[in-house]
Amino acid sequence: MINNHMLKRKLDWDYRQRCIYMTTVTVEKRRPLLGQLTGGLGNPTVELSDVGIMVAQCWQEIPTHVPGVSLLEWQVMPDHFHGIIFVQAPQEKPLGAIVGAFKAHSTSLYRAGARQEAHLWSPGYQDTILLHRGQLANMRAYIQDNPRRLAVKRAHPELFRIIRNISACGHIFAAIGNHFLLDAPVKRQVQISRSVPPDALAAAEADLLAAALHGAVLVSPCISPGEKQIARAALQAALPLIVILENGFPPLYKPPKSYFDACAAGRLLMLAPWPHHTDRRSLTREQCLALNRFATQIAQEDHTP
């Protein structure tokens, strides 16, 4: 089955123009054909198979076939591949043609070695357009960190497994992370108005972090800037946090950035009350009210022994 998020394209974007793209392709059925993870948590690395070496070589040959294109970062993982492409000069064909040629070439070589009409890649590919300051550095770091993230997931699989039927405050949520945080006897909601003055925000942050230091679990949908600031501070201070998200979790979802490490440490629970969607949406007032209502109800649930 084709994952919709692997085929999603930005409809109003000209993929022939000069830009930097992060691309991802996955092995058919996520089979670990490209290598194996070695070194454990101490020194994780991907030891490439013959197929993985061939895939890396095909990728590195792209600039020789496509003038005006350079490769900034890439990483072969056991069952998928990440690569950052810099389209330095406008192209006659879009990005999809470059990725498609790479997939076709590597598939042809794979079939020649396997001596059968075997599939190497899943249909489609995923791309992220890197337009904003800091995105390239963040994506480089993400790609370089992939082996460690895989090692962490394998060491703590229960914390990264999507559970679709967690019950809380009379509602069913999809969840990733430490669901035992729901059982904490003391939970504090983080709800900060967008119009709160700086001194009041600082006081609220100090109060909530102090409560978390003494065992409370913070609960928030992280909608307003103040709520996001306090959530970031809690994560940086290694304090427990329950986050309620508007969007659900697609298959093979991985928590982003600081959420990942907090999840691995058992300090984070991500809850999603509604199904996953692939389109960009702005939160409606009704959704904001609902998310805050969930946070209120979860914080008020009594789990005192």
Index terms:
single chain; 305 residues; alpha/beta; Alpha-Beta Plaits; Rossmann fold; 2 domains; six-stranded mixed β-sheet; 35% helix; 22% strand; disordered N terminus
Outline of the structure:
The protein is an alpha/beta fold and 305 residues long. The protein has helices at residues 50-60, 62-65, 95-114, 135-144, 146-155, 198-213, 225-236, 257-264, 285-300; strands spanning 19-26, 35-38, 45-48, 69-76, 80-87, 126-130, 163-168, 171-177, 187-189, 217-220, 241-244, 268-272.
Please characterize this protein's 3D structure.
The chain has 305 residues and is of the alpha/beta class. It has two domains: 4-154, Alpha-Beta Plaits; 157-300, 3-Layer(aba) Sandwich (Rossmann fold). 35% of the residues lie in helices and 22% in strands. It has nine helices and twelve strands. The chain has helices at 50-60, 62-65, 95-114, 135-144, 146-155, 198-213, 225-236, 257-264, 285-300; strands at 19-26, 35-38, 45-48, 69-76, 80-87, 126-130, 163-168, 171-177, 187-189, 217-220, 241-244, 268-272. Helix 1 (50-60) packs antiparallel against helix 3 (95-114). The longest helix is centred in the middle third of the chain and has 20 residues, at 95-114. It is elongated, with a radius of gyration of 22 Å. Residues 1-7 have low confidence and may be disordered. This is REP element-mobilizing transposase RayT. InterPro entries: RAYT_transposase (IPR052715), Transposase_17 (IPR002686), Transposase_17_sf (IPR036515). GO terms for molecular function: sequence-specific DNA binding; transposase activity. Residues 15-146 form the Transposase IS200-like domain.
